């Protein structure tokens, strides 16, 4: 139900993205249910579909593994209470039918990190255990997933025959500690890959595209969230 704006970084994101959304609303009614939420402290902006967020709240947290970043990497299926409270507060605020909203500056990474995962539809959400930590999983072996959509287009060349050109765009990237796959079948590569395909295939088929999930193993000095 949400898209994180991370490809561009305008100098005044709230003003720039609000103006963009206002223009889109004027051009097409499909954008009337889309609003902007901004986190000025961490310079993050989210376009959120209010109708889809409402649907998400009905089965909040369903299909998401919350990984608490303690030494044991405890896995839970329960949405942290503070995250749930913020989501409900967001929904109440959006009933005003406004265009742009701002997260409270009091929100810590303990809330913002899993909140973003829920909004963006990650199947895995990290939950920091300290408000002061900004990097985690030092030296941890990770399963890294890229989810992209592929769409074929017929390209016409002036000096060569027409051909099918495949365009690909990665719209989701996340990681999961490798050691959890052995103890949690729902975090195995096969399970997560199929889960992602099941989730996004029906949506992408509506626009004539298909989903592609790639997987690799990485070991990083740290993971910044």
Structure write-up:
By secondary structure, the chain is an alpha+beta fold. The chain is built from six helices and twelve strands. The protein has helices at residues 13-27, 50-58, 81-94, 109-120, 180-183, 189-205, and strands at 2-4, 34-39, 44-49, 65-68, 75-76, 100-102, 124-127, 135-136, 141-155, 163-177, 210-219, 223-224. The strands form four sheets. Strands 1-3-2-6 form a four-stranded mixed β-sheet, sandwiched between helices. A three-stranded mixed β-sheet has the order 5-4-7. Strand 9 (141-155) and strand 10 form a beta hairpin. The longest helix is centred in the last third of the chain and has 17 residues, at 189-205. It starts with a strand and ends with a strand. 20% of the residues are buried. The mean pLDDT is 88.
Low-confidence stretches: none
Shape: globular
Q: Strand pairing plus helix content: what structural class?
A: alpha+beta
Strand content: 25-35%
In total, the number of strands is 12
- Given the structure, what is the number of helices? 6
Strand count, sense and closure of the main sheet? 4 strands, mixed
How would you describe the oligomerization state of the chains in this entry? single chain
Overall pLDDT: 88
User: Roughly how many Å is the radius of gyration?
Assistant: 19 Å
Main-sheet strand order equals 1-3-2-6
Distance between the termini: 20 Å
The H-and-E topology, N to C, reads as: EHEEHEEHEHEEEEHHEE
